[in-house]
Amino acid sequence: MSGIATTLQHVRARSKGIGTSTHAVQYLDQDYETLKRTCIHSGCLFEDHAFEASSSSLGFKEFGPNSYKVRDVTWCRPEELTPKPLFIADGTTRPDVCQGALGNCWLLAAIASLTLNQEALVRVVPPGQSFDKDYAGIFHFQFWQYGEWVDVVIDDRLPTRNGKLLFVRSEKKNEFWSALLEKAYAKLNGCYEALSGGLPTEAAVDFTGGITAVHNLREASPDLFVTIQEALRTGSVLCCTIPDSNQEEVTSMKLVKGHAYSVTGAEEVHRGAASRFSCGFLRLCQQSRLTLIQLIRIRNPWGMVEWKGPWSDGSPEWNEICWKDRARLRHKAEDGEFWMSFSDFLGHYKCLEICNLSPEVLDSAEEKKWTLSMFEGSWRKGSTAGGCVNNSETFWMNPQFVIKLNEQDDDAHDDGTGCSFVVNLIQKNRRKMMNLQQVMLFIGVTIYKLPAEHSGQRNVRLGRRFFQRNVSMARSKTTDRREVSCSFCLPPGEYVIIPSTFKPGKNGDFCLRVFFKRQGDLRELDNHVESNVKEMEVLKHETDAVFRNPIGQYAAEADEFSAFELRNVLNRKIKCTDIRTEGFSLETCRHMVNLLDKDGRAKLSLGDVEVLWGKILRYGDIYYEKDEDKSHTMSSTEMRQAVGEAGFSLNNTLHQILVARYSNPDLIINFDSFVSCLVRLECMFKLFKMLDNDGLGEVQFNRMEWLSVALL
Length: 712
What we know:
The protein is an alpha+beta fold. About 2% of the residues have low confidence. Strand 3 and strand 4 form a beta hairpin. It has 4 domains: 151 residues, no CATH class; 147 residues, Alpha-Beta Complex (Cathepsin B, Chain A), CATH 3.90.70.10; 158 residues, Jelly Rolls; 167 residues, Recoverin, domain 1, CATH 1.10.238.10. The two termini are 15 Å apart. Helices cover 29% and strands 21% of the residues.
């Protein structure tokens, strides 16, 4: 119940604008301004009890309590490490981010790239924080988390060994913004060790709310260099990797395999003439002798170990360009940052990831009017985790979303495939669950054309037969990355997007974003919640006597039955049928009494019992009709179809609740639970209808009324 209430509370908060970059969600309900005022008033430095300065915040395995890596670790405030600590010293720059003992180069590559975009950096690192005025040992940072911005509060106690920071540090010994940012991100993800291993764009998305484009450098497009320049110009975060090794390994050219780097610059220079002449003179007089060279600047988060090939800090190639370009670009220092030719870049690196701050930089069109639609959802074993399209029996159970493409692109082709959109699927909170041995799921999206008969409808789901008989229009690759993004271009019309895991039965939460280049619309495709159960008449036929005789043995003087008496009657009677069951529980019988109780005395008449018996026989028919594998039990998949056959139309959320409430650990629903579920549903629908006096689909309760209803 608390989980459902939390979800509802979250939806209501978002509808009020909470979660935007100007009104971030307070992580763990910690309000920075309130906590800081309290500390200043009390004269005490802030201590964050939600992220203790202890081994539990360091990690669970490699940095767990019994690991040698946490020996002699002490938590110190910056003022204990240097006489005059500074939050930011002379602006935020790439050398402020140097890797420590944690294998989180992916995170630091993203932070270093973020320093190139001050506007984006200020959103993550709120200004006005320092160790001077109103210092209270408290800082805060903001991160984008699956559609909303979250404000994370921390204290400034940092893990150290021998008086030095254990993890990220700045080249300036008295600067601490990057170390505190790392701590806030560790808190958001559970602990420091949760940050070990990852992809740079995962952090980049959390810093910007952007969308990722992945480029395989072995299949680089001819205009990739221009794309990189444009991405850098617009403030995108760019990172590259050499994923040839599970362990970081330094090559003879001083590149690190299995390591993430930042891409921090891309320039074109003319090579091939003496440097003593001016660049303009050479370009004018020796055009035929000049060669245009594309250079790319890369940074190692270690803050050292640099490329030693052509165009490295000390290479002779720099002497072959004009002195202005050389003075502007060349920087001799062992700081982890270096230049290399773009051709060498393509030869040595394998993957380039660009996190665009918005999809507007995905093309170079002058008119950029991309719009965003977003939904959150979940995959739950037994209800909405249907797996990929290969699982024909369960694929239809996945969440379904319909998009409407209204306008073609301005540059649409004659073939009509002219509506561009980008689908971005992110699986949520997997890194936070690493200590529970949770790994990234394999995820992807599949797109189908919506049948014409369902055009404009939103309260209907496509069933199993549709997906078994129709082929998809488009699909993404399946990946175990945190997110998958794909660009599509389809004719105007309505389409169904199915986000799924590769294997069925995998629990997870997701955020689905669709960016439309022109006008478009995204809606969830789900059943309307309603009940079409008809009232059953009291049975009057020749077998009444057969039914009444055994009941008479247990009936009270006025032919009234409590839940206890009803259980005895029904469990005797059910043995005379073909229904395989161990009988009805007392809880199920209480639901039955609540359904037909007219005066609140928790008693039923003989006629009421006859009505119940008719319902039970009908439920028995449905139970065995939907038992497709003839196991004499009902799987959660079969349950979903059986509930519909019984007259209930439920959405994904309610089906998830039913599976969680009525199935056993193997997701099997026995007959008692099946009947209990249907009777409970009918009772709740009837009660709501009685209280919905205006027929508007809304009911208000005071506390007493709410408790009275909830305790039924």
